[in-house]
Amino acid sequence: MIRAWSATDVRAAEEPLLAAGVPLMERAAFALATTVLADLRARRRSVRGAHVVVLAGAGNNGGDALHAGAHLARRGLAVVAVLAAERVHDGGLAALRAAGGRTVDVASDAGRVRSVVHDVAGADVVLDGLVGIGACGPLRGTGGDVVRALVADGLPGVPGDATGGPADHGPVTGRPWVVAVDVPSGIGVDDGTVPGPVLRADRTVTFGAAKPGLLLPPAAHLVGDISVVDIGLHLAGAPAVRRLAAEDVAAAWPVPGPADHKYTRGVVGVVAGTATYPGAAVLATTAAARTGAGMVRYRGSDVVARAVLAARPEVVTAPGRVQSWVVGPGVPPAADDADDGQTARGRAGLAAARGELAGLSRGPVPAVLDAGGLGLVEERCPPWFVLTPHAGELRTVLRRHGVDVHRADVEAEPLRWTRRAHELTGATVLLKGAVTVVVGPGVVYAQADAPAWLGTAGAGDVLAGILGAMLAGRAAAVVADPALAAEVAAAAALVHGLAAERATPGGPVTALDVADAVPGTVADLLTLRAAP
Ligand SMILES: NC(=O)C1=CN([C@@H]2O[C@H](COP(=O)(O)OP(=O)(O)OC[C@H]3O[C@@H](n4cnc5c(N)ncnc54)[C@H](O)[C@@H]3O)[C@@H](O)[C@H]2O)[C@@H](O)CC1
Ligand SMILES: [K+]
Prior knowledge:
By secondary structure, the protein is of the alpha/beta class. Helices cover 41% and strands 15% of the residues. The chain has two domains: 2-243, YjeF N-terminal domain (Rossmann fold, 3-Layer(aba) Sandwich); 250-526, UDP-N-acetylmuramoyl-L-alanine:D-glutamate ligase (3-Layer(aba) Sandwich). The strands form four sheets. Strands 13-12-14-15-16-17-18-19 form an eight-stranded mixed beta sheet, sandwiched between helices. The chain is elongated and about 80 Å long. 55% of the residues are buried.
């Protein structure tokens, strides 16, 4: 698991060590230089003579970068430090100069930004040390100008002058390897927002602990590989954001034993699909069955049930015991009701879903509320109800609770609005996206496991089925521990992402391929379990 702590928590952990004279910056800079050397060795035969540009801002983040630059200069690399503030870290600057590093002072002469763009174009590595956890708001001043100019010149990143989010320019051949010092300068360290210009990193070397902004979208798309350097901080208390690793999901997976049967493994009830969208029911039931549910019970119209049974003969359609519900995939939201016959059948699906929900909300049964099921969330929900909206649906949920936001607001601040929806509804909320954000009582998860190919029709129905089966397998524990549904939801996002990774040949993947890849994915995960 990657655990991320807020800037305030990291500072609090640094304080006693700094007071005791522990050389934190030296540790950070040495680890940074070592990582850069390892990356360079992996990319070119010799590190000697490699060109490094250090972007240095006013604070200790710039100090880290300058000290690392000094280490690299002593190893024979050609280092140029771009001084983007009138005053930069004294010790770092002196060390860099003593090691033979060159400096370009852009802060006192904005005309030199062009020469920086030229230096960067010829560099092997760029160290982004403009701002770290001391940043406040969008990257301003000379540092902002430099980043804007570099992005305009073709380096991946966000120019910060448009309304759009992070642009992925894909690999630009011959461009330098960008290493962010602690965080990519200018991201919202605690909330993952991207309020202004940011250079996209290939790697972020972060000190003491990961920061929430490295895990949360949209900034998570700008961090590259994350290396957490242990500089000896003791971070107590709960992390602000967590990201599950495959090992965590493997360790918690309920592997059946000889005494288990379909009811101990969990029965998933699925209310999904309409005559208009029967495929969603097939996908959700298939995914639930393939995730290892003890039984899948389909509750819906006969016409959809026939399609489900044709694809999955093991599904049961009779009423009976259920340990988790999946309500809503392929069921149109109420607002889509119209007068044609097709949506009349949609309304019948919605009525069925509403009937099931009314029953289940009275008992302690975990549920996944997806698509049309989200429209049924009117009262407060228990945390073992997991809402699974995408950004547009989250906006609708919020509006129904009197919060006027636009989809673009949700995309710009996913954590803020997912948390708000959790506060308003009481439910655990999983916001679907390239990075999945899950908020439950006192916990936040951010999962980034899926290839971009997964963004395809029906993928959400498969996620709902996987999550339904995972909730059913641990239903009693999920009801007993208010934070557990969020962990299970994050784990479902991980399984969904890894199944897509397994199913894609490196190209397009269909939702059914993803569902079919779940058993192999789970088997792979289980090989990661520590031997008893
Ligand atoms: N305290 C320490 O000894 C340690 C600090 N560390 C490093 O120090 C960093 C934090 O250092 P600081 O507290 O000095 O803060 P930063 O270096 O992150 O930035 C603060 C400076 O940036 C300016 N600034 C703030 N917001 C800005 C914006 N939006 N646009 C442009 N400039 C902005 C401020 O005026 C200030 O001069 C960490 O991220 C980490 O890299 C590490 O070396 C570990 C130990
Ligand atoms: K930085």
